[in-house]
Structures are given as structure tokens and as C-alpha cells.
Design brief:
Length: 295
């Protein structure tokens, strides 16, 4: 398998970049400078699209072709229709930072999770709230949805992975995954009943969900794992860390490549990684940079 190389480095934000979403071949980023901006990954240029807020932008997710959900550091959630170029909803149910947003296309639901351990679930068509769950699990840093959409999992500060079914929102599995806090989670691209998790302990772990059993563990990074993604039709797993590096893994979590400052990578914590297409991904960092990687 060929190695990843830096294709483009993009600058423009005036603060750390916490959030990233790729949509229709463009990159959307949210930053501590209180802006959401849009970038062309081929040219590295920012277009005229920009939204300014009064708070840092912590999370982004698209619901469909036009609607973008933005989560802020004060718990506010904004929904924009980019086709009509206007805000269509504004929610204040959460009062702490929205660390994770996720869209379940099969159930037409979207999920928001905050720094106090609260989860809200919304109807993607009507934008009405379906349920609000105070889970008392500490900061919820990540949300993963399985391929069929009938299940989703939260990575929680209390070290647990909490698995919910998406029909009635019952918590069906809860297991301790990382002693100092779970920070990232991904459903295995080839195994519906397996999860890959990352934690403050810098480990990657593979889990059998129904058995709530660990299958494998890898000392992956030097500091907390902040993101796990799959690309290449699930043939490649990526992990991003506070240790400033991105690691490339096989689906079995065998190490393949390290992307760090020596190969043009980030100078500070890598906060998010997002697939751009099947062989290209985007990383964003506290160093205010957006990097497009390709193989």
C-alpha cells in the first residue's frame, strides 16, 4: 500500500481549529476564532462563505445537501441552510460545549453531545427534539454510528463506551474502555459488531460489542487520541492525537505509517481527521493549519 503524502497545507484561521466537515468536495472548518469557513482543497483558497459566532466552534455536521449544524463552546447549536444562505434553527438546550455532532442518515436523526455528559437526539427532517438524555458520564467527545444506523456509541470521559439502539434510545451496552477517559470511537468498517476506541491513555482498542470484550489493544500514541476514521473502503484506519501526529493502520490495527512534522504534518495537537474522498483525508490542528493528505 502506497504512503500518504501532504497534498496541500491551508492557512487562514486566526485560532486553533477544532471542527471539520467535508461536503461536496469542499472543506468546512470551525475554529477558536469564532468562524466557520469553507476551503477548496485543490487550490487551498477560501471562498466568500464564512459564518461568524460569538463563541469558539467545536463541532460541525451536515444533515443533507444544504443544512449544516454548528455546535459552539457555550452549548448553543445553530442550523444553517446554505442553499438559502440563512439560519433556520437555533437551540439552547445544552449549556456546555458541544464536543460531538453526528448524523444518522438511515434513521434521519442527528445527535449532539456536550461537556456535561448530556445527549440530545433530533429529527433531521423537522429539526424537532426527540429526547434529551442526561447521562452523567462526563464530557462526551465522540459519537459513532454503525453501518445500518440501528446503533450508535458515545466515547465518554468516565472511560466508558455507551452503546444505544436508535429506535427507542435504550442503552444496550456499557463497558469500561479507557481508564482515564474514552476520547474517540469508530465502528469497525468490516465488522458491524466491533468498535475501535481511543482514549486519554493514548491506546487504541478493538472491542466485540455484544460480548463487551476487548479483542486487541495497541499503544498508538504518546498522548490522548482525538480522532479515529476509516478510508479506502475500510482498508485504512487513521488515528489523530494530541501528540501532534496522525498514524495510519491496517483494519487489524497493524501500524503502517506516521504522519508528523518531519513529513510536513502539524506542529500542535491534531484535533480532527475527516475523509475527503476514498484516498484523501483532511486534518486540522491547534496550529491553525488544515492539511490535505493523499496517497
Amino acid at each position: 500500500m502506497s504512503s500518504f503524502k501532504k497534498f496541500k497545507e491551508i492557512s487562514g484561521h486566526a485560532g486553533a481549529i477544532y471542527a471539520c466537515a467535508c461536503h461536496d468536495g469542499l472543506i468546512y472548518t470551525g475554529s477558536a476564532d469564532n468562524y466557520v469557513a469553507r476551503w477548496n482543497p485543490k487550490t487551498g483558497e477560501q471562498d466568500k462563505f464564512a459564518i461568524q459566532f460569538g463563541q469558539s466552534v467545536y463541532s460541525l455536521v451536515f444533515l443533507d445537501q444544504n443544512r449544516l449544524v454548528v455546535g459552539l463552546s457555550n452549548g448553543h447549536i445553530h442550523v444553517f441552510d446554505l442553499g438559502e444562505n440563512k439560519e433556520v434553527k437555533f437551540f439552547t438546550q445544552h449549556t456546555k460545549a458541544i464536543f460531538a455532532l453526528a448524523f444518522n442518515e438511515f434513521k434521519q436523526q442527528w445527535y449532539a453531545a456536550d461537556a456535561d455528559g448530556n445527549l440530545s437526539i433530533w429529527d433531521a427532517q423537522t429539526l424537532n427534539q426527540l429526547i434529551y438524555l442526561p447521562l452523567d458520564c462526563g464530557k462526551i467527545r465522540d459519537i459513532a454510528i454503525n453501518k445500518s444506523g440501528n446503533q450508535f456509541t458515545l466515547a465518554c470521559q468516565d472511560g466508558t463506551l455507551r452503546v444505544f439502539e436508535s429506535e427507542f434510545f435504550n442503552e444496550i451496552h456499557t463497558f469500561k474502555a479507557h481508564k482515564e477517559g474514552a476520547t474517540a470511537v469508530l465502528y469497525h468498517p468490516h465488522h458491524e459488531n466491533q468498535l475501535i476506541s481511543g482514549g486519554k491513555d493514548a491506546m487504541l482498542r478493538l472491542w466485540d460489542v455484544p460480548a463487551e470484550m476487548q479483542l486487541k489493544e495497541v499503544p498508538a500514541h504518546n498522548f490522548a487520541v482525538y480522532g479515529i476514521q476509516a478510508i479506502d473502503d475500510g482498508q485504512t484506519i487513521l488515528s489523530a492525537s494530541r501528540d501532534k501526529t496522525i498514524k495510519v493502520w491496517s483494519p487489524d490495527l497493524d501500524f503502517q505509517q506516521r504522519l508528523d512534522l518531519k513529513v510536513g504534518g502539524h506542529k500542535h495537537s491534531v484535533n480532527k481527521i475527516r475523509p475527503l474522498n476514498n484516498h484523501t483525508f483532511v486534518s486540522v490542528s491547534d496550529d491553525k493549519k488544515i492539511i490535505v493528505w493523499e496517497r
